[in-house]
Amino acid sequence: MALIDLIEESVVRAPMKATGKEAAIRELVDTLAQAGKILDAETAYRSVLDREARGSTGLEEGIAVPHGKTIAARELTIAIGVSPDGVEFGSMDGKPARLLFLILAPPDKAGPHIEALAEIARMSRSKAFCSALAGCRSPAEVVRMLKEE
Question: Which of 36, 77, 83, 88 is deepest in the core (most CB within 10 A)?
Fold first, then answer.
């Protein structure tokens, strides 16, 4: 399954309200819960925090990919957040994350989870694309740009 097939306006927060790491994770988990994509927001939130405690999922160039395996997810699901001011995420290059891709998957489905992470890594190689995506101001803009990519 292509990552883009999972993206719809209901799972995109643009712009995000959160300014801190845990609040940003909570906002994206709550977005998935409101969209009916996960069974239990608290369980999902804890799984992402547990994963984050083992090492930051902040990458470089303003991208973070918080993720977790949880029984709260029936299948691979993703939420995307755009933070105009950025969220401090302990990124490798010290830059705040402006694009956040929160991925959740059931514990027994590692394959799609890994594929989604790899797809985000490929997409993040284009600095121009990521910069344009970080400039989106609505869920509709994010979805449109990702579908054109």
Answer: 83
The answer, yes or no, to whether residue 1 has pLDDT greater than 60, is: no
For 29-72, write each residue's pLDDT tens digit: 999 999 999 999 999 999 999 999 999 999 888 999 999 999 99
**Which domains are seen in the chain, by residue range?**
3-148 (3.40.930.10)
Q: CB–CB of 119/52 below 8 Å?
A: no
Query: Active-site residue 67, yes or no?
Result: yes
130 half-sphere exposure, CB direction, 13 A CA radius: 19
Task: Give the position of tokens 């991208």.
Answer: 63
Give Dmax over CA atoms of the chain in angstroms. 36
Q: Which of 111, 114, 115, 88 is nearest to 100 (CA)?
A: 88
pLDDT tens-digit map of 110-143: 677 677 777 887 777 788 888 999 999 999 999 9
- What's the gap between Cα 35 and its chain centre? 14
Both tokens assigned to 146: 């990702």
Annotated catalytic residue, options 67, 69, 98, 113: 67
